[in-house]
Amino acid sequence: MVWVTWITRGVCAAVAATGFVCAAAQAGTAEPPAPVTVQDLHRVLTPALPGTYGDDIAVVILGYGLTPEGTLRAELIRRLRAGFVQAVFAPWSPIIVTGGNPQAGLTEADAMADWLVAAGIDPARILRDPHADSTVANARNTAALMAEHHLRAAVLVTSDDHVDRARAAFDDAGVLVVGELTPDLTPWPALPLRIDQFGPALPPA
Fold first, then answer.
1. Model's pTM, two decimal places?
2. Residue 22, domain extent
3. Do 81 and 174 have their domain in common?
4. 177 and 100 assigned to the same domain
5. 41-50, 105-114, 116-125: lowest mean pLDDT where?
6. Which keywords has UniProt assigned to this entry (predicted)?
7. What is the 3-state secondary structure (H, E, C) of 63-119?
8. What is the C-alpha separation between 162 and 65, in angstroms, rounded?
9. Within 10 Å of residue 74's Cβ, how many Cβ atoms?
């Protein structure tokens, strides 16, 4: 629809003003793969922007089960995309990827780390917990990693329907949580956005 195209372009201009670059279709190119909805526009106009943090605060991305072939499921990619943006906004923060449950010889943590490295994250920033098999284990293992590396607090990145349970588990494990970010509350997984101005192109979803 014509009005959707013009609204999309207007939203893209607004988003670009904040530092993001919109990959909405230009004249003579293909339309975006999915129509922009009112909910998508609301996410852009009222986004939950990542915070900026120092080198003593970890960005913790929680795992999600791999396929039997050892590949990333769509929900885990959404978490990784949100985590990547948070990592760009907090370039001094270490990144903890937590998740075991190996499939085809690959753990969630290792698959997540591979994705982040492919997206341009320095491997030296990534701390791996390849043993956790539950949210409680995510929290306990992350607490141990944080203590080992003298990290005082964490920003949790997980799915919207999981964040409350994750927060409770991390609280119980003694981890100070200073922020949360979910793909559902951010615009970039929902609209055809690129973040070229903040870092390299993301791997394909």
1. 0.71
2. 2-46
3. yes
4. yes
5. 41-50
6. Signal
7. CCCCCCCCCCCHHHHHHHHHHHHHHHHCCCCCEEEECCCCECCECHHHHHHHHHHHC
8. 14
9. 9
